[in-house]
Amino acid sequence: MQRAVFIDRDGVICRNRKDHVKSWEEFVFLPGVLNALARLSRSDFLVIVITNQAIINRGIVPADVVEDIHRRMIRAVESAGGRIDRVLYCPHRPDENCGCRKPQPGLLLQAAREMGIDLIQSWLIGDALSDMVAARRVGCQRYMVLTGRGWQELVRCWRNGEQGFRVALDLNGAVRSLLRMEQVPERVPVPVWDGR
Fold it and tell me: What sign has the CA pseudo-torsion 134, 32, 37, 51?
């Protein structure tokens, strides 16, 4: 079975907006994210983005706009030497009570089922209580980053008795720390001799 690092999108990969990220023009990578994803991509972990996108069922933007943002995000990450193996999102509003909107673990379970992932040996990096709860429910190891809503959400975790996760300043710090802890050797690209 494979291992994965699941990463929340808004507040971890890109800037969180109170009015939501509604277009590629509003999508802004946080500092250090592209380097972190490039470094993570040299490991044996699958890299999977999981994100709540209730803006779809709220009628703010259609699903194809969200999917276009994700395609462009993946291309930008690849251009910087990284990779994202899959993006899974929940389109539902909180009042729809679905099983895929974090803190429900549906997206994690879907990824495990479809991609053969061992959730116990995997990690989730997020900036919210809902991320930490979803990961705990399936046994993932967890990092709370302090970008996005992280500081406020860290306090919410403490108040709600959520514990057992690690804290990092940002995605770069979380990736560096988890790779060091896991002692995962990074695959270094081997130069190919072109015969000249």
Answer: positive
CA angle 35, 28, 153 (to 5 degrees): 85
Catalytic residue of the set 8, 127, 131, 170: 8
At residue 190, the pLDDT reads 46
> What's the pLDDT tens digit per position in 48-80?
999 999 999 999 999 999 999 999 999 999 999
pTM, rounded to two decimals: 0.92
Q: What is the pLDDT of residues 15-54, one digit of tens each?
A: 999 999 999 999 999 999 999 999 999 999 999 999 999 9
* 127 part of the active site: no
Check if 8 is active-site.
yes
Do residues 9 and 49 make contact, with C-beta atoms less than 8 angstroms apart? yes
All structural domains of the chain:
4-182 (3.40.50.1000)
Distances (CA, A) of 129 to 17, 113, 182: 18, 24, 24
